[in-house]
Automatic annotation (TrEMBL), chain A:
Subcellular location field: Cell membrane
Keyword Transmembrane: yes
Membrane topology category: Multi-pass membrane protein
Keywords, ordered alphabetically: Cell membrane, Membrane, Transmembrane, Transmembrane helix, Transport
Transmembrane regions listed in the UniProt entry: 53-72, 125-151, 171-196, 244-267, 292-314
One CC-aspect GO term: plasma membrane
Comp. bias regions, Polar residues: 1-11
Annotated region (Disordered), positions in chain: 1-21
Protein name: ABC transporter permease
Family: Belongs to the binding-protein-dependent transport system permease family.
UniProtKB/TrEMBL annotation, chain B:
GO BP, sorted A to Z: transmembrane transport
Database matches in InterPro entries: AAA+_ATPase, ABC_transp_ATP-bind, ABC_transporter-like_ATP-bd, ABC_transporter-like_CS, Oligopep_ABC_C, P-loop_NTPase
GO molecular function: ATP binding
Domain of life: Archaea
Residue segments, region Disordered: 339-364
Protein's recorded name: ABC transporter ATP-binding protein
UniProt keyword annotations, A-Z: ATP-binding, Nucleotide-binding, Transport
Chain ranges of the ABC transporter domain: 8-265
Family assignment from sequence similarity: Belongs to the ABC transporter superfamily.
Amino acid sequence: MAQEEQSSRSIYTDLDDGGSDEEIDKWQRTFRLWRETLREHWGMLTDELSVKLSMLTVAGFMLIAIFAPFIATHQPLQRQYQGEAGIIIEDWAEPSLLGADTEYLLGTTAEGFDIFSQLIYGTRAALLVGLVAAIFTAGIGTLVGLVAGYYGGKVDDALMRIVDFLYGMPLLPTVIVLVAVLGPDLWNIILALIVLQWRSTARVIRSQSLSLRERPFVKAAEVAGAGDWHIISRHLAPNVLPMTFLYGSFGIAWAILAEAGISFIGLGDPNTVSWGTMLQASRAYSALSFGAWWWFVPPGICIGLLVISGFLIGRGYEEITNPKLQ
Amino acid sequence: MSGKEALLEVDGLKKHFKVNQGWIASLMESFGSGEPDYVHAVDGVSFELREGETLGLAGESGCGKTTTGMSLVKLHEPTAGDIIYDDQRLSEATDAEIKKFRQNAQMIFQDPFESLNPRMTVYDTVAEPLRIHDIPNETARVQRALEFAELLPAEHYFDQYPHELSGGQRQRVAIARALVLDPDFIVADEPVSMLDVSLRAGVLSLLDRMTDEFGLSVVYISHDLSLLRHMCDRLAIMYMGKIVEKGPTDQIIENPQHPYTQALINAVPVPDPGVGRDRVELQGEVGDVIDIPTGCRFKNRCSEYIGDVCDQVVPPLEQKTEFEQDVACHLYESAAGYDPYEEMSGSPSAAETGDGAESTPADD
């Protein structure tokens, strides 16, 4: 009875009776809002010269990775010539860039592989490790952080003890053990990196969602009857997303560095070329003492460029998420 | 009284929060050393909200008025007691009944800068409750709600984000969000205290229209008595989680009976330097809400302290013989013939907690 009395005084009565077809096209609207937000962020991000250069660098590496078969002059793991005893140490081909009379742009390794082609194909491995590891670490970390922060209590305790446990494990030694157990495969390295790297994202996202869930707009959604998933996906996630992107972009750089390190100490995938395995091979054949700098300098520069670009983009994005840094 | 039907009844509501001591303390506790501490935020509050009425909840900071308000919209699960809505005890309600209650109970928060999701547009914010409850005519309803909240033209605000709006506009958006479901009652928690004085009048008149045109019941939480006097039909004054005085606004403001209410009303500045009056100033701070004192909670600060009965017997909120409002104080005679002196044990425990006698002389 109380209900009827109320609805007769409602200002919506005529709407409910008549009904209206004038609904906003939700998809179109959502799409437009997303585009505006992205454009705004993009504008802020590319405002800075260092970020712009870093993005160009990353884009360049991506193009190289995609078109690697067309750019590379030789097969990266195909011996260009055979030495007498099967193992060639001193039979380098000097880079043609330096005026040597060979067909190899950056010379060959002591094993007879074309360095330029290895460098090109190495981009693929670096970007694959970087992107896949970053997407998964940021994704898992965000999900765990949101759930732990939102539900709190025992769920939070359980998840954060797992994170604490992972924090107790040193990165490189653990990856070495995991790779040793699972086998030296690029995907195993990626898996090991993901297992260990989501911890920091999870912690940060958890602390963010802990504070977000006490904010009045979350309370308002609760009062309106929103369920847990609704609050997590509509109210918490969009507000921690910039942080996720930030950790993702840092994650790319970390993963590439870690992969190079693991490959350098000889636990890399012997069947794929990466910059790390190139460095490892150059060390194994003492390229430094033979003065064959064209073997180890180019992959070193590439690793440096890509990692610095990743950090600079992350840094630029950090300024968007945290305006106090500007 | 007004004779209107009660929309919502609050029956002995209690909300205690466990004091978080960290895991070492809770480990010790599980081995049996000591009880956990509780903050008695709301400690036995009963009132009713009638249809179309505005009820004011007043009191100092920390008296439990916000916790009461949040419990009313089920943001807190009560420790004890119950809320009865539409003849239904909410503690026994099914999920569907809770969902219906959620449609009819809304809240407006104090801080308009925090109560809107910074990553949602005005349209999405206001439409969200409709989407949760699957209510049709979304666009038209959102538009109507925004227009009611005097955000005109409504379409202009659809795609704006909270950071593009002023404090007053944000609070209007929050009000539109509360109204869009066409609720039965709204809890307004200090809805204008964070706004510039120049914007308050506009938002207040909007809240006024809300009760007039919507036929809404509103629970208005504030520490500002002059504002409550302007807005409310009835008032309830809270102190340390309990209601000490409850009744029609005019009665309470013009003729306060509880010593605490008298002190509160005395603290309201009068904009006329010529008006002289006897000031009753409150001494000290609100008491300890973890270790609740025995007897009357106000005794240590009370200017009318009358000795052991205040120390030992908790004064019930009841009808008194001499005036209209309900008061929880031993100074006045109960209309129902309740005699607090019967409950006095004369035990020496009164001496332990009787430190109130030091600050205010006992007069018996």
